[in-house]
Design a protein that fits this description.
The chain has helices spanning about 1-15, 100-110; strands spanning about 35-45, 45-50, 55-60, 65-70, 75-80, 85, 90, 115-120, 125-130, 135-140. The protein has about 140 residues and is an alpha+beta fold. The chain has a single domain (about 20-140), classed as Lipocalin (Beta Barrel), CATH 2.40.128.270. It is globular.
Length: about 140
């Protein structure tokens, strides 16, 4: 009987209408609740990045990370579970660059392996932290790569 199915359909429809966790969209600066989107690295292990070297990180809803370490482009897996985040081994191109870019890139790739959690700070910056909650990377919203 079609009439007896209506409450089930209504219940399912209402269940689907419940709010879903927010995912940040590229360019969204509203302090969205997830690290998905394009980011520009500001600090690595507490030290500011070199003004002439841009290190970027793009995290997709599909669990991928990409960007540039400062010299080379890279891709890696990004595993997000609640406030936990882990990055797989980065696969990168192997171009030679100026010493400052190479040094920053080496620090960035090493830092990725130490990250275990994320949080969005009040000012909208993304902080990726290690197992004891220490900031490993601090990032600001960037442009889509």
């Amino acid at each position: 009987m079609a009439g007896s199915l209506s409450p089930i359909i209504v219940a399912l429809t209402l269940g689907l209408a419940a709010p879903l966790p927010a995912l940040a969209q590229d360019g969204d600066t509203s302090g969205a609740a997830a690290p998905v989107g394009a980011w520009l690295v500001q600090t690595i292990e507490g030290a500011p990045t070199d003004a002439g070297v841009e290190t970027t990180l793009v995290i997709t809803p599909g669990g991928r990370a990409s960007g540039t370490g400062g010299c080379n482009r890279f891709n890696a897996e990004a595993m997000i579970d609640g406030e936990q985040i882990h990055f797989g081994q980065a696969m990168a191109t192997r171009m030679a660059c100026q010493e400052a870019a190479m040094r920053q890139e080496a620090g960035f790739f090493a830092a990725l392996s130490n990250i275990t959690a994320w949080r969005v700070l009040e000012d909208g910056r993304l902080e990726l932290t290690d197992a004891v909650g220490q900031a490993v990377l601090t990032l600001t919203r960037g442009q889509s790569a």
